[in-house]
Amino acid sequence: MPWWKVILWLVGLAALFSLGIIVGHFAVPKEADQLAPQDLDQELLEAVMGQLDASRIQENLRELSLKPHMATTLRDENLVQLLLQRWQNPESGLDAAGEGVYEVLLSFPSREQPNTVRVVSSNGTTLFTSQHSETNLTGEQGDPEVVQPYAAYAPAGTPQGLLVYANRGSESDYAYLKDQGINLTGTIALTRYGGVGRGAKAVNGAKHGVAGLLVYTDPGDINDNLRFPNETFPHSWALPPSGVERGSYYEHFGDPKTPYFPATPSAFRLENADIQGFPPIPTQPISFEDAQKLLCEVNVTVHNRLELRNSSNVLGIIRGAVEPDRYVLYGNHRDSWVHGAVDPSSGTAVLLEISRVLGTLVKAGKWRPRRSIVFASWGAEEFGLIGSTEFTEEFFSKLQERGVAYINVDIAVFANATLRAQGTPPAQSVIFTAAKQVPAPGKSGLTVYDNWLQYYNRSSPAHGVIPSLGTLGSGSDYAAFVHFLGITSMDIAYTYDRSKTSARIYPTYHTAFDTFQYVESFLDPGFTSHRAVAQTVVNVLLRLSDSLLLPLNIGDYSETLRSFLQAAQDKLGPLLGQQSIDLGPLVSAVERFERAAAALDQRIETLRKNLSDPLKVRMVNDQLMLLERAFLNTRAFPEKYYYSHVLWAPRTSNVVTFPGLANAYDEAVKTPNDPSAWAKVKKQLSIAAMAVEGAAATLEPVDDL
Amino acid sequence: MPWWKVILWLVGLAALFSLGIIVGHFAVPKEADQLAPQDLDQELLEAVMGQLDASRIQENLRELSLKPHMATTLRDENLVQLLLQRWQNPESGLDAAGEGVYEVLLSFPSREQPNTVRVVSSNGTTLFTSQHSETNLTGEQGDPEVVQPYAAYAPAGTPQGLLVYANRGSESDYAYLKDQGINLTGTIALTRYGGVGRGAKAVNGAKHGVAGLLVYTDPGDINDNLRFPNETFPHSWALPPSGVERGSYYEHFGDPKTPYFPATPSAFRLENADIQGFPPIPTQPISFEDAQKLLCEVNVTVHNRLELRNSSNVLGIIRGAVEPDRYVLYGNHRDSWVHGAVDPSSGTAVLLEISRVLGTLVKAGKWRPRRSIVFASWGAEEFGLIGSTEFTEEFFSKLQERGVAYINVDIAVFANATLRAQGTPPAQSVIFTAAKQVPAPGKSGLTVYDNWLQYYNRSSPAHGVIPSLGTLGSGSDYAAFVHFLGITSMDIAYTYDRSKTSARIYPTYHTAFDTFQYVESFLDPGFTSHRAVAQTVVNVLLRLSDSLLLPLNIGDYSETLRSFLQAAQDKLGPLLGQQSIDLGPLVSAVERFERAAAALDQRIETLRKNLSDPLKVRMVNDQLMLLERAFLNTRAFPEKYYYSHVLWAPRTSNVVTFPGLANAYDEAVKTPNDPSAWAKVKKQLSIAAMAVEGAAATLEPVDDL
What we know:
Two copies of one chain form a homodimer. Chain A has 705 residues and is α/β, with parallel strands linked by helices. In chain A, helix 2 (42-51) packs antiparallel against helix 16, helix 9 (341-363) crosses helix 16 and helix 20 packs antiparallel against helix 21. The first copy, chain A, is globular and about 85 Å long. Chain A has a seven-stranded mixed β-sheet with strand order 1-11-13-12-14-18-15, sandwiched between helices. The first copy, chain A, has a seven-stranded mixed β-sheet with strand order 3-2-10-5-6-7-9. In chain A, strands 4-8 form a two-stranded parallel sheet. Chain A is 39% helix and 16% strand. Chain A has three domains: 39-103 and 310-546, Zn peptidases (Aminopeptidase, 3-Layer(aba) Sandwich), CATH 3.40.630; 110-303, 3-Layer(bba) Sandwich (Glucose Oxidase, domain 1), CATH 3.50.30.30; 555-699, Transferrin receptor-like, dimerisation domain (Transcription Elongation Factor S-II, Chain A), CATH 1.20.930. Chains A and B meet through strand 1, strand 11, strand 12, helix 11 and helix 19 of A and strand 1, strand 11, strand 12, helix 11 and helix 19 of B.
């Protein structure tokens, strides 16, 4: 038998063996089994993880990233059909899948009149003109569907003025220039990506009179200083000199015309002039190759225009067998800026492989989760998390009542060194448990958890040295779930070895060089990191969908709250004391929370010994599921669209504590003699204490007065 | 045997018989019974209703109304202790009872410097001085604890000016005077109670420059024109000439210093100057006896002052046996203006009798409800529903997650003619079912339901001719439950025969003549109407707490929505059409709701045939319980404290439809050429449609995509 036949035989035997395990262990329970409540099946879990196939993920990615698929383009619509076909497949699809369409306001450059940056002489001669596209190095950059680099939602206009280098365009960067005696009025500010958000660079500049904004990617920030064609992609993972980061410059998220309304055709829409959060001045991103050629007087011509477009979410469901009204949601966006092999197709490739394996089990009648699993492919994320936000608006009540958790995998693999997870505290333990069951890619022999621990760790009072779970900002589609809905959320990926690169993000981010070849050659040859992410995610997913008792560890919120309190006491306490502002109510609230969480954990341990009463289990699960909701206060930050979560709203202060309190404190310190500024601090203190007290009350025995 | 011994024997036998029924039917279920899920027990219900004793209600009322018990006074505190003793009684108390104290801002007149209204001559001589107290006709009016009539929260001051009669002090009343060429600046406006809210009379007047406000009770509005001492109380139920209606003139509800915060000692408090909604001008209520003596130049001296006071709620619980995390709440306020025999002690007398009967069963181990029952005695309602509102703020998350329904019985008996119930539509059917099981007081032989049907009825497309269920405004402690929390709520009382009186409300309302004698002599001799209310309420209460499937008929919301839609189409449609504002989205939303509600009703009928799966029942009950929540939108009416319910927020328009839509329409009609006014109409239309769509989504099958 030739060697390849041996391999075929072995593969076949392995597949049969796996199938046998599945048939043997996950057959529909017989009458006699019905009495035992459905719970997580460890062997099923192992088998499912084993079924996740790196080469299938690789083939998914190849197809997904074949062509540019910016939101609402023809190729985006093709991928909608691809997802629907996969999820409606009779052998490996889900129970149901469908499309949700919203009419949303996007922003595009003009094909006919490309945006241009020119250096002009004093007599009006053009001395230099910026490139309209990236250099065609691998063929993909020459695709006619590649969108010209632009700053989405920046207004059209042709400002011209003296060039001023404004570092990262932060408030303090502009203030520094002003302090140097530089009059910024009418200037064109040249800034580099990073430090502050895209839109903030324009907003800050406009406050100082800046007339036009340029943003480039600095090789020092992204390339570990590599800058020449022969040392950048396709010769390494580094960004070629002509690469330009596209991106949305909208300051909020969701469809800009319909804040708090789902963007159905009939929804109330703001007039474009009434929209808040668009960059106020013409803005254009450029390459570092072009940036270094700019000098003196610069003209920026932007022809962006706003367009109402139909954007689709694709949704699929595996219906829960026992608690179909409890939803574990797992999603990623579908739209890219160009080919988007990394962002977002690496995540979508994983999503499709997970849905295939689970769908196959369901279609074969071998398994059905205890709770419903909802799969989502969001549209128009790149323009501002639009698809996911509109979805949360449309199904707000339903999701708020029934959402157990939201798992986001946007970029699945930034790099192949270690897991990186972000989430709210109740998600920590289930991610840890999952990561301990997955082998790390490579030859270390470590689990994903142990490998992670080597790269990012911290010392936890309760758990000792553990991997660091990051917090969730608003960088991807989890934003509306955590901030607007108060659903326990997480984001999972593989990422960098920070000892080897200081790149702000993977170098070809949002450029025409983010291609399949880039992933295959530099980020994850063999797709083993993709598989490790898939295995970790499916493990988390099944634990959430199938465990009789929800694996959300509320005790981990005690640790967060205690650390927030400690930071407030240490960093804010002295000056608050001088203002007779007492942190005592927050101390009492945190202590009450700690007591309530510990007591509930005790009751859960007791319950674990006898799980036969389905209502008792459901009541405890409701407490666990709804804890995150209790931290919402829709009136806490009225000026910030969608931000209601008192613990995770944007924090501008660098004190890691309750964001409303820290931000108000920072403002008050600037005007220490203004009683109204300190009143705002007191108000935010009350908001924080009330949220923690209210959350504690939900954990206390349900029949306590 | 003398006749009285026969009666004693008969009473004893009846009591034994009742006890037998209870023991026989409601014994703790044996092992074999455990498999059948706990459901409503009709015979228990009948027995409980039979135990409710009119003479006990009478004795409760005698004690409760013995002394003035204005919020936070010593007597109010005594009643807190009375409630605690009753609810902690080892034989007839609840499982637990406790006190919740809030530090709230109240307003009181000065004992040392009574508020005074004077008629002054042009040379400054005082020609007439108003009375500082009501005439002591029955002894109670002479109690030193009777508070001087005053307008709570009206500012202190001594305006003096020409007297102007301004009817009811509505916006149009003042506008009429202005149109007649009368300069209102610096005047004292004399208005009569009714028509618009108390505070509105001052707010409207101040806009026109009115310097001081007087409010009197007109015999035509309250007394069917009776006005002389020999034809008013104690000779009839009519208000004596010296009677003055006290009341709160605060425009919002809840503690004025802590909107959206529970008024704990450490809560953030507004500076008094920053409080919104206080009457802007000195205001004083007066008697009709005094009102007729006023002429020409009038001086109003108000010495009211604001005080922070501790106000208590008393809470008690009977813990649920099966679903302790589902709360049926039943409450009433405790504080009165003076003796408050009718308002609120008639309701509290009923509350105590119901809690006694149910507590006795629980303490004897004879019964325990399926769900938890929470009893509440609210503090400081008269100042603006303060105790109940603070409670909903403190336990917002817990109540929003778990509140099944709130039953309010404030004034239990306005008069003894007929039941009067208000509520949101899901409450209608359970009130009807209960009312059909209670005999109406008097000799008619009718049920409470049939008697009600004779007095107040309407034709329902779904049900034919049925009693009219009123809607809930913000007149009592249900306000925060329905508007802020979105909990299905209702208010139940016995009330007038409108063919016999046109009194705006019972004549001694908020005066020192609202006494036990008044109730016993004129409102409900024999206390049979009190008992009928108690029986109806306990029936509703047990149906909500004990029925396996919640008796909330969501189909009745379909009827409401259809009627709102029809009114919008008929009354607003033509002009909206001219503005190209399409009601189509609202039509679709209502149709979707109707379909979803009907389909859920079908599924419930199927489920009813096999109720053995506790999770299936719980899932449906969650849909029913949470429907009301789905109509909340915290951003719908941002300027109106606490009002989030899209269907029941205050409606100033007289078109009975979605209030936000109707109000915005009325505004736009005033400025038909202002596009921003029509944009607000469009926005409210979207808010309404979104709420109905979102609510429909919660009724659709839980595993629908």
